[in-house]
Amino acid sequence: MDRQQSRSDRVIHQFDTVLRTLMPHAAASQRTSPAVGVVDGVLDDQERRHAAGLMRINHTGEVCAQALYQGQSVTAKLPHVRQQVEQSALEEIDHLAWCDERLVQLQSRPSYLNPLFYVASFGIGAATGAVSDRISLGVVAATEEQAGKHLDAHQKSLPPGDYRSRAILRQMAVDEAHHAHLALEAGGIRFPAPVKWGMRLASKVISKSAYHL
Prior knowledge:
Layout: H1 7-22, H2 45-75, H3 79-105, H4 114-131, H5 133-157, H6 163-185, H7 193-212
Helix pairs in contact: 1-2, 2-3, 2-4, 2-5, 2-7, 3-6, 4-5, 5-6
C-alpha cells in the first residue's frame, strides 16, 4: 500500500511539477509520442514557422492545464476529486513532453510567457478548488472542452505535410475529451454559455500571445 503523503511530501511534489512544467525538455512522457514512426512531408520555412506557432500554443495550453490541475489538487476537499485531478495531470504531462519534442523538431521553442500563464492558471485552479469541488471539476470540463475545439482547429490549420504534429494533436484531442467526461462524471457542473464565452475570450488572448512569443 502507498503511504499517506505528508504536507512536506506534497510541497516537494508541487515544486517538482513546476520545474518539469516550466523548464524546457524537463517533462518526461509515460507514453510513446504518437509522432514516433510518422514521416513528414516537405515543409518550407513559412510552413515550418506556422506549425511551430501552433505547437507553441498547444504547449502553452498544457502548461496552463498543469498549473490548473496543481492549483486544484492543493485545495480540493474530497480525496477522490484530488485523485482524479492528479491522474489527469499525469496524462497532461505526456502532452507537454510531446509538444516540447515537436517544437525542437520544428527548430523552435516554448513561449516566453509560460511562467506568467502558469501563475495565473494555478491561481484559478486553487481559487475554484477552495470554493467548491463541483465548480473546480466544472472548470476542468469546460477547459478541456475548449482545448478540444482548439485541437480540432489546429489539425485543420497545420500545413498539409506536417503529419507528426497532426498525429500528436489527434491523440491529445482524444485525451482531452476523456478528461472532460471524467470531470463531469465526478460531479463537475456544466457552466452556462456566458461563462464559456469568457473562457473562450481568455483562450484567444493566450493563443495569440503564445503563437508569436
